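Reviewer 2 asked us to include a model.

Predict the structure of this chain.
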Amino acid sequence: MNAKTYDVLVVGGGAAGVGVSIALKHAGIENFRLLDRSTIGASFASWPAETCFITPSFPTNSIGMLDLNSIAIGVSPAFSLGVEHPTGEEYAAHLRGVAEFFELPIFEHTDVKRVTKVGEDFRVDTTEETLRAKHVIWAAGEFQYPRLNGFVGSELCRHTATIPSYEELEGDDFVIVGGYESGVDAAYHLAYRDKRVRLFDKGCPWDDESSDPSVALSTYSRERMQADWFVDQVELFPETPIASVAREGAKYEITTQDGRRFQTSVSPLLAGGFEGSHKLVADLFERREDGYPLLSEHDESTIVRGVFLCGPAVRHENHVFCFIYKYRQRLRLLMPPVRGSCMKKLDLERYRQQLLAMRARLRGDTQSLSQRALDAAANSRMPIHMAERGTDEAARECDLMLSQQEASTLDRIEAALERIEEGVFGICLATGKPIPKARLDAVPYAEFCVKYAEQLERDGRSAGETNFRGSTVIVERYRSGSTEYIDTPGILRSSDTETTRLALSALAENDVVLLVVQATSLDQDLSDMLPLVIGKQGAMVVTYWDKVQQGEAAQEAIERLAADVGVKFITLDARQISGPNRQEIANATINPSTFRKASLTARAGWRIEPKPGWMEHHIVGPLLAVLLLFLPALATIYGANKVADLLHPIVARVFEPAIATVNATWPSWLRIVLTAQQGEFGYGLLNMGPFLLVWAFPTVLMFALILGVYKASGLIERMNVALHPLMRPFGLSGRDVVRVMIGFGCNVPAVISTRSCSSCSRGPAISAIAFGSACSYQLPATLAVLSGAAVATGTSAVSLTGLFLTYLLITTLVYLRLTSSSQARSSLNVLMTPSRPFMQWPTWSALWREASGTVRQFLLQAMPVFILICIAASLLAHAGVLDMASRILGPVMGAFDLPSQAALPVVLASVRKDGIFLLAADDGPSFPMTAAQALTAVYLAGVLLPCLVTAMTIGRETGWKPTSRLLARQARFAILFALILAWGSKWPQGNWLLELGFDRIEPPVDRDGCSSVYTLMLPCQRCVVLRGFGVFYGAVLRGGIFLPRFEFLPRYTTHATLELPPWSDEDLPKLSVPKDSQQCDSVSLTLELIDWIRNYESTIVKHLGVEYRRSTLLRWDNGKRTIVPAEEMARAWRLLGISIAEDCRVLFSQCGTVWPARRFGGKLMEQQVWCWGRDVEYSDGNLLVGYGFERHRDCSTDERSTCYRLDRGQIHIALWGFGMFYGCRELGGLYLSRFELFPTWAPVESLALEIHWPEDLPVFARPRGMFEWRCARKLWKSSLLWIANYETWVRDTVGLDYRRDCVKTWLRPYVRADKAPAAWRFLSRRGWEHQDQPLPQVFKRFTIAK
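Predicted model (structure tokens):
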């Protein structure tokens, strides 16, 4: 037995169990465990593969509404999964991700056998051990307990819960018992596969008028019942309860209670619902009349205290909580009794005694104050002097005010005592989270937790930024007149950022507050910010007032709010603050009022947001954001370097005499600090200091100005939102990318700016800056070295630079992915923005205000540290430490395939990044290096460690111990990535085919123009022969196939080997379409060849890397060919093999037994288009228009081109003189050309109106993969049946003689008019190529006799 006693044991790892476990963590209960008999989400994973949620998922958290399928605040399956109706397997993965994110304590594979109450605790017996707990929450669900005993013979039925996939069910005639959601879902998927279905239900849920989906079918299911295949294939039997099911030989006989009998050859499917797991603990609950447990208002057992029920089995009166969005509402109701009983009894008694003592004291004080005030009023006399009267009134008002305040405190004490009696003491009334003990010790009657999480709970979203945003990173102080203003950063509500901590700290230390909110989201801002300033004095500044429609209504709303809050509201446009505005603000701070409310009764009643633009597009937005982020950065680096190139020689000429004088005449101790000359390089203040400003300052300034434009215009917030989904998998938010980009100017301001990061993303942001932000010293030095290496080796400087930047980006992302926490990378970290910012032209003042902070940080914080680094570097150089380090590391450079001379630049670059310049000379590298070695050297020198200035800044910001860990981790990864760069490119330079075992046969002299032939012998007497025009694969006893290069048309031969090398196709044996008796061998050979190619591609990627395959595809890609991505090639071959194995007609549909059908169908289609043309010219009116088509003519050209379009329900048809389009919702569209029966498919269900010519059509192609083939087959059948039905309609409407006349006037009459409908129906059926007679003979039934 486990001796530990848990506070809570949660049984069941489904949605209810995970949801209530998260609620327990939010309530501060850590001593609990979640038990599941299998794994988290196993019940959902057991759903049929096709079954999905009927409740739609939509990421509405940002507007305060939870996703219907969410189980916790801030969680959205729609966002994390990217689907609206997730399957069971997808939702199970979502639950596992949520459980990992919240770090829930889980015991998987723990089957609970029995729960019993022993004294005050519960004994929980499992298959592994016996556990003890104070409380048990039963959340085991119901899917694994299907209802199987509804009628006689039900054991002969198969419950839908036991079906892995409807696609695996054999048979064509199904009976389903149960017409609620499971039954309709099964019927839908079976009908989709052309199965006949009879659906029985004792009621009629599809016609129930109730709006409760627990009683009637959901809208989603009703909509699916309207699908064509459902209507055609499913027969409904409402009000038809089943009496019995019996087995009669190979048939199943179903008898209804009204005596009717039905037969089917397939075991009936049972969709009668579920028993539920609550029956396993039925002895712990009192039963309702309907058999479900009777529960208290907290979902607790009414007979056994401490055991709770959670999930779809919860019932209260007539309310059924069987959906996630229903029963999740009750999760919080379990927390008060659980949390209250988890508090120690001694603590409760201590708090109760404190509250009683406070109540007794305050009652006496309150009565005394009230009485004194009343006595003073009764005994007052008329004073002679007005000042004397004012003194009396003020004293009396003070007494009454104190009395009222203490009376309010008494009310709160009484409420706290009541909470102790109810067992909910110490729980925040707004969130259900525990109030910290320290707070209760100070204020025992506290109602809310410290962090004011009531707004978080009310909005239903995770920690995010409100639209109250400041522009500063540090708290700034400045004075205007006699008033000192403290400018705090923007406050991130419920956030743990450093800037928020600074802002809240400054707010707590000062009593007068000038609260700035935005008029566009005034109600939301006030709701967020007023709880933080309650009781303080100040005024309210409302910006963005120019965005509000001016008028009396707006002004009246402001006046109502001012009266409600108790302070003055000042409305203005912050971009154009007038003199009166400034005076009004100054007066409000000198004569402030008191913020007297934390929540408002008055409301402004508006919310103003700009329209979405290109940045909000889910595809264009991220691309545009990346361009806006990187293109200005590259332009800045280029421009700043140009400025530095101009200034460098000028500054050098100015300081050269001073340096020479110092080296010649000054004392040695000053020379050490000022020049520290070591050969041609100096480490002192005079050598290094001026050039810091030359190279770094222009870059920092230009970066600050461009980012200032982005911020002042409002563009930066839109970029953050667009970039966030791309960066979240690497532990960064969209906002953090901007901070990393600042590092390309200077790392110091970038590191300081991370104060605005959340605690989980600040570490990755600093790591990205230290690792991947090549500062204004590093990048020019790197470019110089690579340019010199390119000249020396004859390679392209642009390609080397591009390769370096690409590798730096990739390794930085890999580094972040591997080192950032799972919490930082979780898909649940949604970047919450309360409103879309307005775009506006930045003013010069706003631009400078945004940029000046970065420049000031560079000058005041980076420069002093850099001076210290110069002094330290000069001392180290003078002491010989740098030379000694380079000598020690010289031999180590061999591990990176570098000469020993590379050690000094690597060491110096760890001090200051321009040490990379030592790798370059005037005419190339400073020592012989290949291009690959130059790349490795600059990468290792730049990334091994951040410069000392950056390292010291990180240490000051985060502490020296975390900084040391960061440096060690960065060094390890830099060494690993440098080794990969040094040795990873050393792929085998020989022929990879030869290394795999192929034999190469060189062409003879008379075939001098031919390329080599490669042959490979495989086990079991098989062989592969590769030639530039195709592949041959043979196996003894089965023959061989040849697969030509430019089309997938396998040809068969009885020869298993080739007698001669195939220098041309003439050397191949006779190849032909396989006969019926040869098709089995041909298919098996094709599948084996595909499997061999798939294994070959996997081997390539495994040994040479996917980049190698990408490089080969780049040479193949001419812009016109369809390119399969390198990482998808093996998978593409696998899917092709699956589709061929599923239906071998895929293999022969172009070249096998159906060639006669294609010829016949092509002539029939050409004749049909001719007949449609005659129908347009019918004497009594256009027959196509009479059928329901609409005519659309191309008026943009003199050539007449008309399209006829028909829309009926989910079907869309378009007819032209060159062919026909047939589309259907959820299936896509099929195009049938006029001159051949070769259908092509596209994922479009309708076409634009302006299509009048073949070149205007979208791209149609042969289907790929099982899904596309399945859709194409359904469209093929439906389209040909429609043509047949149309021909029947023409015959019935205008007579057969009319159609015969149409056929006679056709130049090439082929199919008899009376046989045309039958011919189209024949082609639409499956299996027509397997007739007893040859197809040409079959087709003679329909054709005109010659």
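The first helix runs from residue 15 to 26. The first strand starts at residue 5 and ends at 11. We have added this to the supplementary material.
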